[in-house]
Recover the amino acids of this structure.
C-alpha cells in the first residue's frame, strides 16, 4: 500500500527514543530505509546516510516517512516546510501522528496539485466489531510491560523472526504505527473508538491453524495510567495463550509520569495473569524480555541470570541475545 | 443544551433492559418525561402514558429522546419513519446511539428544512488531553461491576442524591449517554479515542474542594472482555479514593457473552483494588451495591445480609433501600 523504499524523516527529535518509528523500520526492514533526513537540533541518529530530498530521490526513495513521535503529535511549521518540499519533489508522505496529514489544508492542496498520496497509518480504515469473546483456533502470545516503550514490539518481532527461521507458522500482528509501517497492515489501536478496541484485536488475530502463532504487538502498560485501557483491550481481545513480561531495568519512573514508580516483574505478573485468564483460562506467563540497551554486556547477562533465578522463568534480551529462549518456552 | 421536557421513544425494544436510557431519565428527572412512544412489538414499558406525537406535543414535549439502546445501535427504517414525523411536527431529536442522527441524510435534510436540532450525545464535543496521572484535590468514588448493566449508574445517582440531601458537596459525573441525557453534560466515554480515555475522565473530574465528592458513572466491567478497557480507563483516569462493588445476583452469564460466567464479589475486589491503587495508593473498597430488582424483598434482604457477612462491608440496594449505608461508609 505504501510505496517503498523510504526516506526516514527524523525532524528535530528531542532524543533517540522519539525516533523509535524510524528505528523500527531501519531494524526490521533495512532494505526499505534508503537514508535519514535530520533537521537542525535533531538529537536522534539511526546511523543511516544523511540525505536531502534530491539525494534520496536519486537513491530511489518513493515515500518520506515521518519516523518521529512526539507527545501530542503536532506537525510543526518547521516540519511543514520539508513536507511540502517533499511532495513537490515527488515523494508520497506517510505518518502515524495524531495530527493527521489529511487535516493540514496546505499539505492536502500540494498533494492534490502534485498527484502524491498522504498515508495516515494511525487512522482505522476498518469498521471494527464489538468483541464477542469467542475462543479462536490457533495460538497467540502478547508481551505486557512494566512501562510503555520497554521493547514489547521488538520482542514480538524477534519471536516472529525466530519462529520463521525455525520453519514454524508465525505472524507479527501490528497494533501501532511503527508496526503498521513495517508490515504494511495492522490495527492502529490507540486511535480506535473505546467500545471497539477489544473487537479490533479479535479482528486482527482471527482463527488460524492450531500450530500457528500470532505475535500481538503490545501497547502501553497496566501500570501506566494514561494508556492502561488500551493494554486491557489487548489482553481481553487477544485472549493470549502466553504472556511475556517486558521490562527496561534502567527506567527511573513511568514514561511521562514522573510521580509514578515502575512496578516489579512480580507485581506485573500478578496483575496481568488473572486478567488474561478471564479471556483464556489456560493462559501462562512463559518468559521475560528485558531491554538491556542501556547496560553493558556483562551487566546485562548478570541481570538476566538474576531475573531467571528470581522469577523461575527464561529471561533474555531478544534483540541483543536472540529470542531462542522465548520461542523454546512457547513451543514447550 | 437539550430542550425539555421529553417524549421518550422506546421503539421496538426487545426487552425492558434495552430501554434503560429512557428508564434512567424517567427515574431521575421524572419532571422531564412527559410520556412514552412505543412501536409495534415493543417489549418495554416505563409505566408512563403512551402518547403519539400530537398528544405529546399538546402535553408540552419539546424533544423526542431515543431512549432505547440496541447492540450495534442501528437506526432501523421503521424507527426512521417516526423520527422524520417527529421533526416535521416540531420536535428536536436526541440520541446516544452509535449510529448518529447526523449521519442519516434524510434526518439532516428534514431537520434543516424544519429548523429542528439533532443532538448526538454519544459524540465527544471536546478535545480531551492525554492523562497525566497527577493527584487532584477532592474525593472521588467509582462503582465497578461484576458485569455490565448491573446498576453502576444508579448507584452513583443514588449516592449523589443522598449526599445532597445531607447537605454534602457532591456531583454526579456522567460517562454514558443516559447519564448525559439526565444531567445535560458529561463524557461519552465509549466513543472516546483509546489514547484519550483516561484523560477524558481526568477532565471530567477536576480539582475540587477537599470535602467534595465526585460520583463517577462506571462503565463495563473488568471481567467483560468487550469493554474492560473502558473500565480500566475509569479506574486510572478517575483515581478513585473509594470503590463500590456492584452486582446483580440473578445474572446467569456475562451480558452478551454466553460462554462467560460472572466473577464473585471477592474476585472483583481482588482484581479492582490493586489496579486502582496504581493511580491512588489510598483507595479502599468501602461498600457493595446489589441490584435486587429480580428478587422479592425478603430474598433481597437475606442476600444483602449474607453478602455483608461474607465480605465484611456494608451492602445495600441503593435504589430499593436507599444509599445511606454507602454514604455513611464514604463519609467515614
Amino acid at each position: 500500500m505504501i510505496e517503498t523504499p523510504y526516506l526516514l524523516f527524523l525532524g528535530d527529535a528531542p532524543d533517540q527514543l522519539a525516533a523509535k518509528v524510524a528505528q523500527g523500520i531501519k531494524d526490521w526492514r533495512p532494505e526499505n530505509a534508503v537514508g535519514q533526513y535530520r533537521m537542525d537540533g535533531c538529537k536522534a541518529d539511526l546511523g543511516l546516510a544523511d540525505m536531502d530530498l534530491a539525494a534520496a530521490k536519486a537513491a530511489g526513495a518513493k515515500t518520506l516517512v515521518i519516523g518521529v513521535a512526539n507527545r501530542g503529535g503536532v506537525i510543526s511549521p518547521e516540519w511543514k516546510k520539508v513536507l511540502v518540499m517533499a511532495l513537490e519533489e515527488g515523494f508520497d508522505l506517510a505518518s502515524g501522528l495524531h495530527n493527521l496529514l489529511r487535516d493540514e489544508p496546505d499539505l492536502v492542496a500540494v498533494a492534490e496539485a502534485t498527484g502524491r498520496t498522504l498515508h495516515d497509518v494511525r487512522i482505522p480504515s476498518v469498521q471494527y466489531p464489538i468483541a464477542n469473546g469467542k475462543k479462536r483456533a490457533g495460538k497467540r502470545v502478547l508481551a505486557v510491560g512494566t512501562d510503555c516503550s520497554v521493547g514489547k514490539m521488538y520482542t514480538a518481532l524477534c519471536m516472529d523472526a525466530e519462529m520463521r527461521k525455525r520453519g514454524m507458522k508465525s505472524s507479527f500482528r501490528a497494533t501501532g504505527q511503527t508496526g503498521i509501517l513495517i508490515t504494511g497492515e495492522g490495527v492502529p489501536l490507540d486511535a480506535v473508538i473505546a467500545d471497539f478496541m477489544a473487537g479490533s484485536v479479535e479482528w486482527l488475530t482471527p482463527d488460524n491453524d492450531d500450530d500457528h502463532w500470532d505475535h500481538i504487538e503490545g501497547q502501553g502498560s497496566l501500570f501506566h495510567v494514561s494508556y492502561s485501557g488500551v493494554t486491557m483491550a489487548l489482553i481481553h481481545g487477544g485472549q493470549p495463550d502466553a504472556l511475556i513480561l517486558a521490562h527496561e531495568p534502567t527506567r527511573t519512573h513511568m514514561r511521562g509520569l514522573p510521580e509514578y514508580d515502575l512496578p516489579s516483574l512480580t507485581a506485573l505478573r500478578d496483575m496481568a495473569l488473572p486478567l488474561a485468564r478471564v479471556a483464556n483460562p489456560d493462559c501462562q506467563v512463559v518468559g521475560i524480555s528485558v531491554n538491556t540497551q542501556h547496560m553493558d554486556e556483562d551487566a546485562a547477562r548478570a541481570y538476566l541470570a538474576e531475573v531467571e533465578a528470581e522469577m523461575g522463568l527464561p529471561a533474555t534480551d531478544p534483540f541483543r541475545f536472540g529470542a531462542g529462549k522465548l520461542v523454546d518456552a512457547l513451543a514447550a
About this structure: Chain B has twelve helices and eleven strands. Residues 265-279 of chain B form the longest helix (15 residues). The two ends of chain B are 37 Å apart (CA to CA). Residues 131 and 199 of chain B are 4 Å apart (CA to CA).
